[in-house]
Design brief:
Layout (H helix, E strand, L loop, with lengths): L10 H11 L9 H5 L7 H8 L1 H10 L9 E6 L2 E6 L2 E2 L1 H10 L7 E6 L5 E5 H17 L8 E4 L4 H13 L3 E3 L6 H11 L3 E5 L2 E3 L2 E3 L1 H9 L7 E5 L15 E3 H5 L11 E2 L3 E7 L7 E6 L1 H14 L7 E4 L6 H13 L3 E5 L10 H9 L3 E4 L1 H10 L2 H4 L8 E5 L5 H11 L6 E4 L33 E4 L12 E5 L9 E2 L3 H9 L6 E9 L5 E6 L3 E4 L2 E4 H9 L4 E11 L3 E10 L7 H14 L8 E4 L13 H8 L13 H16 L1
Parallel strand pairs: 4-17, 6-7, 6-8, 7-14, 8-11, 11-12, 16-17, 16-18, 18-19, 19-20, 29-30
Antiparallel strand pairs: 1-2, 3-13, 4-5, 9-10, 14-15, 15-23, 21-22, 22-24, 24-25, 26-27, 28-29
Helix pairs in contact: 3-4, 5-6, 5-7, 5-12, 6-7, 8-9, 11-12, 14-16
The structure holds 5'-O-[(S)-butoxy(hydroxy)phosphoryl]adenosine.
Length: 662
Amino acid sequence: MSVAKGDRGDPAEKERLEALLQESRRFPPPAAMRAAANAGDPKVYDAAARDLEGFWAEQAEALDWFKPWDKVLDWQSPWAKWFVGGQTNICHNCVDRHAASARRNKAAIIWEGEPGDQRILTYGQLQREVARFANGLKRLGVAKGDRVAIYLGMVPELAIAMLACARIGAPHSIVFGGFSADALADRINDAQAKVLVTADGAWRRGGVVPLKANADAALRACPTISKVVVVERVGAAAQAEMQAGRDITWEETVAGVSADCPCEKMDAEDMLFILYTSGTTGKPKGIVHTTGGYMTGVSTTHRLIFDIKDTDVYWCTADIGWVTGHSYIVYGPLANGATSLMYEGSPDHPDRGRFWSICEKYGVNILYTAPTSIRTFMRWGTDWPKRYDLSSLRLLGSVGEPINPEAWMWYHEHIGAGRCPIVDTWWQTETGMILITPLPALTTTKPGSATRPFPGIEAQVLDERGDPVGPGAGGYLVLTRPWPAMMRTIYGDSERYVRQYWSRYPGKYFTGDGAKVDEDGDFWLLGRVDDVMNVSGHRISTYEVESALVDHPGVAEAAVIGRTHDVKGQAIAAFVTLKEATKGSDALKGELREHVAHKIGPIARPDDIYFAAELPKTRSAKIMRRLLRDIAEGRALGDTTTLADPSVVQRLKEQYEEKEDA
Ligand code: WT7
């Protein structure tokens, strides 16, 4: 494992990082925001550091509990229990308690469909829809503790289904609608899900993603699924077939059911959901989140970081299939009684002004999006946002990967008109909630820095030996104290949980990210230090893509790397050695790319395929990805002395340089 992207010995990369740390622009919080801010007193940091449990208990008290907890935290590292003995229900807190308040007729979810259709669900309406679907699930035989897989596009039924699961205590496992049938089957089987909720299809840039057809293919290998609920979204366009006895439409599921469905009393530590994410091996990890701590963590961070006010329209552009959507489209905002906007489509459909037209149409006040999108908007030019009235915006957020200072500045100037603070929020599927971030009324921001740990969070940057590194030096980012929304385990593999996150530095949570801290104590995230790529904010392991490639009959061996890409952050480059009988051709490259898309999903489709006679390996037969990255990024080769046969990589480099010259 090498220390961070930045320290892999490449001078250009080093230079970029040094420039980053010399970033001298400072953006103090707007004074006007401070006066009315949800977090307006800097003492919150000290207070939380001094009395961690007191801080979180106070946050949890703002939520409804059926039974108060006996103990705030039981920490037997690495096993955490928060709000031990407490009973609550996150659906009650996100829906019912607002429906029973003055917020009853406030919009909970504003949904903008890709073809331009719209649906607004007030808290009162959401309560009814969720309760009915919860009863529908019960009628299908779903009971507390049963896992429900959800494979949908960004339709309101997705939020309704997850809240309905939470209501009856059935952990959900949402699978991003862009994943393939194989990926879906793996996740269903790992979670042993009983019911699948899907749709006939999903709209994607005017075309249809055949969700039901994918699900049907997946279910041939999923013996635990007994019922499939199908949302009718695209109609005839999908040509979905219903299987008698197994499949039932959403309408049929809720037909004739009562809207009275009491929220199950859940223990604080009962499982709320499983969400799969890529690790360093081929098998995705089922990240387990529980009820009380997660609810407290996401509502608190959402309230303080996004400074949410009752009159705000808040828009997080992520897909609910990822953790960002779980925590910051559904659970966090709704727990706070906010209006959360949900958009089904893509940023360039029907045109490149779509995001800004949505901001104008609904008067969006808070926008939370990803650097890869911002870089795409930069490419499209300032004319698009200029056409729309963005004056309602007051706060901007970024998440998913390090934001480069250029993109930060562009976002600040062209979307935020120089007046909106930017919160660059660092976190992970595993952390459940944002952990490193500015607080908009308190933190002076610097373009490219996620600034400092949230109150109650303690982060360190360590060297190989586990010693903290000084200001400006690169190292491994770890977290040293527990936080309420932290993952509790990997579903079905507690041993992997300990090994993966808590063994490298015993007693400390290993994030897998590289970081630096500057003289002011601000954190600069440097990207993954493991074999996990970040492609347009999507987390994909090199190993997963390699497994998909060697699954192709013509492939003998494959090595995959993420190479730097201007818009996506990283692009996927695959070095492939073919079996003797197979000849490399452009057609085969296309076939291999499609094969990976078919095995995992279009997000994992390699950008570049290189055929290689041999792959560069160390004497212990470990593929040296660092050198492959040098080739893919067109750089001089780094140190090759540990290779078993240095001529292999030399030949490979020449082969691809010739190509480029030609
Ligand atoms: C990885 C986690 C957290 C929701 C989206 C991704 C990278 C995330 C930032 C940021 C630098 C970031 C890290 C992290 N990452 N946010 N603001 N600055 N890097 O969740 O799929 O679990 O990926 O995303 O590398 O480890 P995820």
